[in-house]
């Protein structure tokens, strides 16, 4: 990928401190640094020019919960194809979960991931395992992994089920100044559920996973975080009661943060019936009820939910094209995240653009102790250029991931990330259709 150290972004609307979010500006980038922001900038020799045509520009977005599958499951996704999908979705940074093979439980695997991502325009931050082999029995080499570049610890895909192990993990992570991200699931309550337990699962005759399987584990982790002083980050929250638990814990001063996936504030368990058991609406936590969807939006509105993420989870076509009960959980999400956020949160006036960008730009990096990019002269250029009104169809031709397990295939969407700039590279997202 060719470097683009010198670029002028014409006719863009900067969003952030010092800008009204309405006025068009030009931005000059020299040697990867924002050199000038003004009403009109004339290109000089050797400068590339991109006409943003009135699109917004913000600090680069971050998804702190993705699965890039490498090493070990390259038939689903690779770091290269995952970064390609992230860039198309407008993300300049991601944090990737450790359910790889080998699991990301030692420093050499952390460093392998970082090395593989060096040539990409997207920054990739590995999340290390809490326990060795993600087996839940003994603490992994957390300090060594952090020294190698791990930004958090999680056994995602499985919960840290043993309470004593979680206590020790929180104590260790507190010393290291990084969060524990837990997949909140009481396995004795949840399995072998294939969707949300409720009216729809009863109607369809499918075994369901009740919301309490998530809520009891969140309650345990909140208590342990309060006891140890550690930072617990609740992954992919999905039920109203779970949001209530986090809200109360925050009010009481517990060091707890949380994230919500775009599909959990958009789709409900009714989709499984409507789509005739389409496995691309099977994920974990499962799609919940409309009341739970409403609670996700309320939690985003009042700040209980800190981060918008995707839980981007690619699977090969032969893995998903099976009977519903045999299909693996997970969908891709990077390509469509902004469109869903735009249509469900911004357009209806649920959140302002500034509130949304806090959850895409600022909060995930603050949680992971990473520097927050700004649209400001003298700052390193780490930018996302996006619009809110462009209508487009997410066809298979537009998929940038290696896998195509998305519930949004074939749908008309509104709003698109048109380009990113990061690591001295400019990527314009041209539609292929």
From TrEMBL:
Signal peptide: none annotated. Belongs to the metallo-dependent hydrolases superfamily. DHOase family. Class I DHOase subfamily. PANTHER family: ALLANTOINASE. Residues 59-240 form the Dihydroorotase catalytic domain. Zn(2+) 2 binds at residues 156, 183, 236. It comes from Rhodohalobacter barkolensis. Its cofactor is Zn(2+). The keyword Manganese does not apply. The keyword Zinc applies. One of its GO terms (biological process) is purine nucleobase catabolic process. PROSITE patterns: DIHYDROOROTASE_1. The gene is pyrC. The active site is at residue 311. Its EC number is 3.5.2.3. This is Dihydroorotase. Catalyzes the reversible cyclization of carbamoyl aspartate to dihydroorotate. Coiled coil: none annotated.
């Amino acid at each position: 990928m060719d470097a683009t150290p010198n670029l002028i972004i014409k006719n863009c609307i900067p969003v952030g401190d010092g800008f009204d979010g309405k006025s068009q500006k030009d931005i000059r980038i020299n040697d990867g640094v924002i050199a000038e922001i003004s009403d009109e900038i004339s290109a000089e020799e050797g400068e590339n020019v991109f006409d943003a045509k009135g699109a917004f520009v913000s600090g680069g977005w971050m998804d702190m919960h993705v699965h890039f599958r490498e090493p070990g499951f390259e038939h689903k996704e690779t770091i290269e194809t995952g970064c390609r999908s992230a860039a198309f979705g407008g993300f300049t940074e991601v944090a990737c979960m450790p359910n790889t093979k080998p699991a990301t439980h030692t420093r050499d695997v952390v460093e392998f991931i970082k090395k593989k991502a060096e040539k990409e325009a997207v920054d990739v931050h590995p999340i290390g395992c809490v326990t060795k082999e993600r087996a839940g029995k003994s603490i992994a080499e957390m300090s060594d992994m952090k020294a190698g570049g791990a930004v958090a610890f999680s056994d995602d895909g499985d919960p840290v089920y043993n309470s004593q192990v979680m206590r020790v993990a929180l104590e260790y992570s507190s010393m290291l100044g990084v969060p524990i991200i837990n997949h909140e699931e009481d396995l004795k309550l949840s399995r072998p559920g294939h969707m949300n337990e409720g009216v729809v699962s009863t109607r369809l005759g499918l075994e369901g996973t009740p919301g309490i399987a998530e809520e009891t584990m969140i309650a345990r982790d909140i208590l342990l975080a309060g006891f140890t002083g550690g930072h617990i980050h609740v992954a992919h929250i999905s039920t109203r009661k779970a949001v209530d638990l986090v809200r109360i814990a925050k009010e009481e001063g517990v060091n707890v943060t949380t994230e919500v996936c775009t599909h959990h504030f958009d789709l409900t368990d009714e989709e499984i019936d409507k789509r005739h058991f389409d496995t691309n609406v099977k994920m974990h936590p499962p799609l919940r009820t409309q009341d739970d969807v409403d609670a996700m939006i309320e939690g985003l509105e009042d700040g209980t939910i800190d981060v918008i993420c995707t839980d981007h989870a690619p699977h090969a076509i032969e893995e998903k094209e099976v009977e519903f009960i045999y299909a693996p959980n997970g969908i891709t999400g990077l390509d469509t995240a902004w469109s869903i956020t735009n249509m469900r949160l911004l357009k209806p006036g649920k959140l302002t653009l500034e509130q949304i960008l806090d959850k895409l730009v600022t909060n995930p990096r603050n949680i992971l102790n990473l520097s927050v990019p700004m649209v400001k002269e003298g700052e390193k250029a780490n930018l996302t250029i996006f619009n809110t009104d462009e209508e487009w169809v997410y066809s298979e031709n537009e998929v940038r991931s290696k896998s195509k397990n998305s519930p949004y295939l074939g749908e008309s969407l509104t709003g698109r990330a048109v380009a990113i700039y990061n690591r001295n590279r400019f990527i314009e997202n041209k539609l292929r259709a």
